[in-house]
Write a structure and sequence with these properties.
UDP-N-acetylmuramoyl-L-alanine:D-glutamate ligase, homodimer, alpha/beta
């Protein structure tokens, strides 16, 4: 089983308006509500693939109850006293404008309760995917704690986060880390544009921070993997237009499934490239188009890096 | 007792952002949540004045539960299956940008349950204030039904709505109607700008639609009242700057209290002018500044219209 962790989930609201007029009043024509949070997107993709999955994390208040009611994946969230946050995306036919609430404050007691539940889930897990930001109150090394609890029970971790949570999470030696270029730059405290040659050096420095293997997501340019078996670039055979928001989560879903099934590199890389691309063509994060996935999979370009 | 009716309440969210950037992503620094809806604002003002009040209406789902939890007035809402709507106001230091969700669909059975509860409340009511829009599913003549149920028990109604709900509501002969200039224009199917002379004729036509008395809110220019005792204009002695959103609801609160206490015209008009102005100086709808109210009350200019 794959356990996905979402410590700072959200109720994602998408408002459709005719046109966004700053300082105007807008009658929203349609409201879409869905459970939000990168770990929940990973779980939804895994569920679509027919993979055994359990989503966990923290939920609280009326908004947390609403998120729980909308979940379509097996889930065991730990309750907190604070209100789960919302995000609002305003779509106006041209593009989207986003508003992201801060997360609720988590108490030390709630965090302790979560880690105890998490340790129990590890008895039945093969792989754990840790995705997204930490809410206020969760220690900055929270992911490191979870990665160690998982490793104690022989469970391998995939980490997908940014900033301090990423840097400290790496110190616990996750099996795999999936930064994008910006997250990698943040990790290196250095965000100047890099030439192609630096890309491998950067990814390798991320590995030196503690991750066993690194997969860097590079948008339409595909993925770069530094593994124990070798280093490869994987690039989709077509440039697909659409919504790239959930592509990273689909990538983490593919990597988690590959770890669980012990899919060898670079086959796992090709799988992650095709599944990421299959997320781009769907309008919402957490969805993948399986026809696109099957069509692209045999045609992914993989080359030694 | 005064009963206030809010058939389409909302959870009002106010987001603070540094600057609103269309098609950008915004980290919200603070989130304020409050119960929204014109009838709830009226109830809150009455409560501040120490007046006996009961707020009723329709609430549903997790958002309805959240609204109920935030209420600071005595309330007896009728549950519905749909989700109570939200409004989002984005404040960026310059001005506010508003987004208003449509209301939930109300079933015929839920509306019947509401009217039965409403009829029971009328046994203890002196005055009922009916404010705001009707959610989908409530018949367009919903306010007319409530005004008749109230009148059957000798309870007088104050109506504050717009469009078809206003036009049909008037046919039941409410004691008092409080349109603003735009609502009046909508009622007359005629929204061209009007000269001062037309103002009285317009208000009188609204009376001919069924209301016994009419008070037109005219923004900083105060109020115009056409009553059985005569017609007057009431203008505040000072032009106050601030947030005019809740001024109309404070006006309805003053008028409802005046009806209950049988305050004679034009004293009631002066009271409504001062309380409306006392709402402008507070940052949120539903609040009034009692010091401003007491200071302005003796200085309201009242003249025969």
């Amino acid at each position: 089983m794959i356990v996905t962790v979402t410590l700072n989930p959200a109720l994602d609201l998408t408002y459709t308006v005719d046109a966004l007029i700053p300082h105007g009043t807008h009658r929203v024509s349609t409201v879409a509500e869905r459970p939000g949070g990168k770990g929940l997107n990973v779980a939804t993709v895994l569920r679509t693939l027919g993979e055994p999955v359990l989503a966990t994390g923290l939920l609280g208040g009326a908004t947390g109850g609403r998120v729980e009611g909308l979940l379509t994946v097996p889930a065991a969230f730990v309750p907190i006293g604070g209100e789960t946050r919302r995000t609002v995306t305003v779509a106006d036919g041209v593009d989207a404008t986003g508003f992201s609430e801060p997360g609720p404050r988590v108490t030390a007691q709630e965090w302790a309760a979560f880690t105890a539940h998490f340790a129990e889930f590890m008895d039945e897990a093969d792989v754990v995917a840790l995705s997204g930001s930490l809410p206020p109150g969760v220690p900055a090394d929270g992911y490191a704690t979870l990665i160690r609890l998982a490793a104690d029970r022989g469970v391998r971790s995939v980490l997908d986060t940014s900033g301090e949570a990423l840097r400290l999470g790496l110190t616990a030696g996750p099996e795999l880390v999936k930064p994008n270029a910006t997250e990698l730059a943040g990790l290196l405290s250095d965000d100047r544009p890099r030439a192609r040659d630096d890309e491998i050096a950067d990814a390798d420095r991320a590995r030196s921070h503690g991750a066993r293997e690194v997969v860097v997501s590079r948008g339409p340019r595909g993925l770069l993997a530094l593994t124990r078996q070798g280093s490869w670039r994987g690039v989709p055979s077509e440039h697909l237009l659409g919504n790239p928001t959930g592509a990273g989560d689909a990538c983490v879903a593919a990597l988690s499934r590959g770890l669980r099934r012990r899919t060898p590199w670079p086959r796992l890389l090709a799988d992650a490239v095709a599944l990421s691309a299959a997320a781009v063509v769907t309008p919402v994060a957490g969805a993948v188009d399986l026809d696109t996935y099957r069509r692209l999979l045999p045609a992914v370009h993989v080359s030694a890096a």
